[in-house]
Specification:
Blueprint (H helix, E strand, L loop, with lengths): L1 H4 L2 H94 L4 H13 L2 E2 L3 E6 L5 E3 L23 H10 L1 E9 L6 E11 L4 E8 H23 L9 E6 L4 E3 L22 H7 L7 E5 L10 E10 L4 E8 H55 L11 H45 L10 H18 L3 E8 L2 H8 L1 H18 L6 E6 L2 E7 L3 H18 L13 E8 L8 H16 L5 E3 L1
Parallel strand pairs: 15-16
Antiparallel strand pairs: 1-2, 2-3, 2-6, 4-5, 5-6, 7-8, 7-11, 9-10, 10-11, 12-14, 12-15, 13-14
């Protein structure tokens, strides 16, 4: 090694190259490492916002589902009230017939009817009442109210109770009316929804009601189940190393928290150690703001010492009056960036040392042959290889340059020409490859993905769903009576019909990660990852509605327009399951949809 450093050429090349490498590595460090660190920290913060927005979307959807459930329960209870009054109305028809036949007088029939009504009870102390046109209760199971004049009686909110129902019955024959009243045998007023009916022959208005607390009790059960499911999901949701998601309501009661001992507790008096103000109030003030709330908190590994910087981002859900928060230690946001920075520095250091070794070996390999080739190069200069060079340099590299200058010039020219041709050909091949790849995965008629692309995505999404344990949903769509459509309108119109169906399909199923494809003939398919059975069925129904709304004429269909039947299936793949079982399940549901009358989506 010492011998090589005695060579001026070796020292010159080695030292120059080493300095250049060091400068390049310094520039790379200054340009890359701070940027990487900042980018990784930004990614971690964006991850917190992404998780927060995802949970917010889940909460909003849960609220919408519960509201839909409440409306459905109310509609169901209204139907029950109608049914109960219909039974009573049937009894009045019987008594009316007896009066008309002369078997009873109208007074006797009225007395019998009112007596029967007073003794009817069902459900949770529910009953049927009757009033005359003067708003006098002439039949009520409570003796205190039976015979009472309700013409001016108002509920606790100042609204008339019986007169609006009598007026509505005389105008329209029936209807619904809400007011506040106490349940039979109780004292506390409760919101009550009453269905009333005009019994013309007996000059009566009868009615029965449901107390809304019964409806709300059913809805609360639904909400409790939804909150429990959300709680289960959030306890497995993490940000960075130990960050988590928690939810509290507008009264500062903790609804969901990874620590079950905190759930259900009032934390309105919990103070921010940094500001000595209620931390719940500060979190509420930061709702829907980008920067979040920074504060000091203790660590699971160091409880009771509030010296660790922490940040919480907050979103407010108005429907539940919930504040949804993601919380993470600031140090953990930087931790990934620091780890990555240290790894980059380690790679730089190892690469730098390895570069020095390579430089040494390269220069050694370069100078030794040059010293041996010097005399040969002089002979080449004298004419042995027809090589000439005017360069007169004192060191070894000058001799080599003089001998091989001409050859290098020609070689460089050849390389430039060859590189230009290679670049040109490579660009042409890349364009052709992209076109070929697009053609191989796109259906030529409809412009959406073809069967080949569907098979690839199904296999990929099936494997991913099995890894992460999330459901994968699939739906098969078949255009109703498409053969008749083709026969009636012609194949050209049939092709245009398929393109229209594909357009509706693709515009309806359009989330990132979803796939819409032509399965074959008039059959289409969509794949939606991380989607359960109910949501997949809802998406399929939207497709049916959108296609029907398109109103594409189909004279050979019983619906008069182009419609579709859809079979929907969703499951969490087992490790040994094959994706064919999902396709078969959807296919079976599709046949059931056809057998049930078509133009609908059916769940497997």
């Amino acid at each position: 090694m010492v011998t090589h450093f005695k060579s001026s050429l070796f020292v010159q090349i080695f030292s120059t190259t080493a300095v250049v490498i060091c400068v390049l590595f310094a520039i790379m460090y200054l340009l890359a490492v701070p940027y990487i660190q900042t980018t990784v920290e930004g990614i971690e913060k964006n991850g917190g916002h992404t998780i927060l927005n995802g949970v917010y979307a889940m909460v909003e959807q849960t609220h919408l589902d519960i509201e839909d459930y409440r409306r459905s329960i109310i509609l169901e209870r209204k139907a029950q009230l109608r049914n109960i009054i219909a039974v009573v109305e049937a009894r009045t028809k019987i008594l009316e017939a007896q009066v008309r036949a002369g078997n009873l007088s109208k007074a006797q029939a009225t007395s019998a009817l009112l007596d029967e009504l007073r003794h009817i009870k069902y459900g949770n102390n529910d009953y049927i009442w009757a009033a005359n046109y003067s708003s006098v209760l002439i039949s009520h199971p409570d003796p205190k109210l039976n015979g009472s004049n309700f013409s001016s009686k108002r509920d606790e909110r100042g609204n008339l109770i019986v007169p609006p129902m009598v007026e509505g019955a005389l105008k329209t024959g029936e209807g619904f009316h809400s007011y506040w009243w106490r349940r039979l045998g109780e004292q506390q007023p409760i919101e009550k929804l009453t269905y009333y009916k005009h019994i013309l022959f007996f000059d009566l208005v009868i009615g029965t009601a449901v107390y809304m607390d019964d409806v709300e009790a059913t809805v609360r059960l639904k909400k409790t189940a939804a909150v429990e499911e959300l709680r289960h999901r959030l306890r497995t949701t993490h940000l960075a190393k130990s960050g988590y998601v928690y939810i509290f309501d507008g009264q500062k009661n903790m609804v969901i928290h990874p620590n079950s001992n905190i759930e259900g507790k009032d934390f309105s008096k919990q103070l921010n150690p940094s500001t000595q103000k209620p931390i719940g109030q500060e979190l509420m003030a930061e709702a829907d703001k980008q920067n979040g709330l920074r504060y000091r908190w203790d660590s699971p590994s160091d409880p009771g010492h509030y010296v660790y910087d922490k940040i919480s981002w907050v979103r407010y859900s108005k429907g539940f009056d919930w504040y949804i928060c993601t919380s993470v230690y600031v140090g953990e946001l930087h931790e990934s960036a620091l780890i990555l920075r240290n790894r980059v520095l380690a790679v730089f250091a190892i690469t730098l040392l390895f570069s020095f070794l390579l430089i040494y070996l390269f220069v050694k390999k370069l100078t030794n042959p040059l010293r041996q080739l010097r005399d040969t190069a002089l002979r080449v200069e004298s004419g042995d290889f027809d090589a000439r060079c005017d360069l007169n340099q004192a060191d070894e590299i000058g001799v080599v340059a003089t001998a091989f200058n001409g050859m290098v010039g020609r070689l460089q020219k050849n390389i430039r020409d060859l590189d230009a041709k290679v670049v040109e050909r490579t660009a042409e091949l890349q364009i052709l490859n992209r076109k070929l790849e697009a053609l191989s995965t796109t259906d030529g008629l409809t412009g959406i993905a073809n069967r080949r692309r569907f098979d690839e995505v199904l296999a990929s999404e099936w494997s991913r769903a099995a890894r992460v344990g999330l459901p994968l949903a699939l739906a098969l769509l078949d255009v109703d009576w498409f053969k008749k459509y083709n026969d009636h309108y012609g194949h050209q119109a049939g092709d245009e019909c398929l393109r229209s169906v594909a357009g509706v399909f693709a515009s309806t199923i359009c989330r990132t990660g979803d796939l819409v494809a032509r399965y074959g003939g008039e059959e289409f398919v969509f794949i939606v990852p991380a989607t359960d059975r109910d949501n997949a069925l809802s998406m399929a129904r939207k497709v049916c509605e959108a296609l029907k709304a398109l109103a594409l004429p189909h004279e050979m269909s019983t619906f008069g327009c182009v419609t579709a039947s859809i079979g929907v299936a969703a499951m969490v793949p087992g490790k040994t399951d094959m994706p064919d079982i999902l396709v078969k399940a959807a296919d079976g549901a599709l046949y059931r949809a056809k057998n049930m009358g078509r133009n609908q989506a059916v769940l497997a």
